[in-house]
């Protein structure tokens, strides 16, 4: 079963990754997506898909282990760059250095160099706990970008509504992919380097997580460009607005009914007071 998963990853996801790489290069300028960050992300995905074919050498060989961790760490950091660029597009539109060609190329070069140096030191010095720390560094950035984007959405009047939906969907997808798939996979792979853990079960889980991560990376491209995803996001927003409006209507109706009951109670008390007054006068 484990070998079947590896062949699925190599024979299916590797060609699809190359196809998405070509699509990202062709559609980047047309749909105004951060194409440079996404193409570098696809390159890192291609590297660790190719290294998955040498899975047993990753667990026992230094060079193979370095390339695999190098690709995984680079993919995490390029996803962080995409999240930061999407946040700046909403919250800081004047700060467009991350969207310009020179600035984005410089950021990508710095990411590659940082990954080579940091992962190289961790692998060749056998300090594998560093790899978990490197993988955990983007966590505050993903949370900050999503929270800051949601806070800055009402003030971004110049950004179209469809673009806002795509940006929020991209950040949510990146956050879920990171916390549910990428970070657990890195932690399990690092712990798998120690002989205490059952290798077969952990290897199986890591490959499954890699499959889901690759699938979400492909979906990420759909969230970053105009297309059928806009209709899906619009329907989701309409459903949420309808549920909110239904809740508001029920609240208003309950408030009105309370007011009606109170007014009727006041009228009844007033009528009773009038009758009591008439009876007192008749007695006098």
Automatic annotation (TrEMBL):
<feature type="transmembrane region" description="Helical">
    <location>
        <begin position="131"/>
        <end position="150"/>
    </location>
</feature>
<feature type="domain" description="G-protein coupled receptors family 1 profile">
    <location>
        <begin position="66"/>
        <end position="221"/>
    </location>
</feature>
<protein>
    <recommendedName>
        <fullName>G-protein coupled receptors family 1 profile domain-containing protein</fullName>
    </recommendedName>
</protein>
<dbReference type="GO" id="GO:0035025">
    <property type="term" value="P:positive regulation of Rho protein signal transduction"/>
</dbReference>
<feature type="transmembrane region" description="Helical">
    <location>
        <begin position="105"/>
        <end position="125"/>
    </location>
</feature>
<feature type="transmembrane region" description="Helical">
    <location>
        <begin position="200"/>
        <end position="223"/>
    </location>
</feature>
<feature type="transmembrane region" description="Helical">
    <location>
        <begin position="35"/>
        <end position="54"/>
    </location>
</feature>
<dbReference type="GO" id="GO:0005886">
    <property type="term" value="C:plasma membrane"/>
</dbReference>
<feature type="transmembrane region" description="Helical">
    <location>
        <begin position="66"/>
        <end position="84"/>
    </location>
</feature>
<keyword id="KW-0812">Transmembrane</keyword>
<keyword id="KW-0807">Transducer</keyword>
<keyword id="KW-0297">G-protein coupled receptor</keyword>
<dbReference type="GO" id="GO:0007200">
    <property type="term" value="P:phospholipase C-activating G protein-coupled receptor signaling pathway"/>
</dbReference>
<keyword id="KW-0472">Membrane</keyword>
<keyword id="KW-0675">Receptor</keyword>
<dbReference type="GO" id="GO:0004930">
    <property type="term" value="F:G protein-coupled receptor activity"/>
</dbReference>
<feature type="transmembrane region" description="Helical">
    <location>
        <begin position="6"/>
        <end position="28"/>
    </location>
</feature>
<feature type="compositionally biased region" description="Basic and acidic residues">
    <location>
        <begin position="253"/>
        <end position="284"/>
    </location>
</feature>
<keyword id="KW-0325">Glycoprotein</keyword>
<feature type="transmembrane region" description="Helical">
    <location>
        <begin position="171"/>
        <end position="194"/>
    </location>
</feature>
<keyword id="KW-1133">Transmembrane helix</keyword>
<dbReference type="InterPro" id="IPR017452">
    <property type="entry name" value="GPCR_Rhodpsn_7TM"/>
</dbReference>
<feature type="region of interest" description="Disordered">
    <location>
        <begin position="249"/>
        <end position="284"/>
    </location>
</feature>
């Amino acid at each position: 079963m484990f070998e079947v998963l590896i062949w699925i990853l190599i024979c299916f996801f590797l060609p699809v990754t190359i196809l998405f790489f070509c699509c990202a290069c062709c559609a980047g300028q047309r749909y105004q997506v951060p194409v440079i960050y996404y193409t570098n992300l696809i390159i890192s995905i291609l590297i660790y898909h190719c290294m998955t074919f040498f899975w047993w050498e990753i667990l026992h060989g230094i060079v193979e282990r370095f390339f695999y961790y190098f690709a995984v760490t680079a993919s995490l950091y390029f996803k962080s760059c995409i999240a930061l660029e999407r946040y700046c597009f909403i919250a800081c539109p004047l700060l467009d250095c991350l969207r310009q060609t020179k600035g984005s190329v410089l950021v990508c070069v710095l990411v590659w160099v940082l990954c080579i140096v940091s992962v190289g030191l961790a692998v060749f010095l056998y300090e594998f706990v560093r790899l978990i720390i490197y993988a955990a560094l983007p966590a505050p950035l993903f949370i900050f970008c999503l929270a800051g984007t949601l806070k800055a959405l009402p003030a971004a009047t110049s950004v179209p509504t469809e673009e806002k939906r795509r940006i929020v969907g991209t950040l949510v997808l990146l956050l879920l992919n990171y916390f549910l798939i990428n970070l657990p996979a890195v932690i399990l792979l690092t712990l798998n380097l120690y002989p205490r853990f059952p290798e077969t079960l952990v290897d199986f889980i890591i490959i499954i997580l890699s499959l889901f991560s690759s699938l979400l990376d492909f979906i990420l491209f759909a969230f970053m460009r105009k297309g059928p995803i806009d209709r899906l996001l619009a329907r989701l927003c309409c459903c949420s607005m309808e549920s909110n409006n239904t809740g508001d209507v029920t609240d208003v109706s309950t408030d009105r009914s309370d007011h009606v009951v109170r007014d009727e109670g006041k009228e009844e008390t007033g009528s009773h007071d009038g009758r009591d007054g008439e009876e007192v006068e008749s007695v006098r």
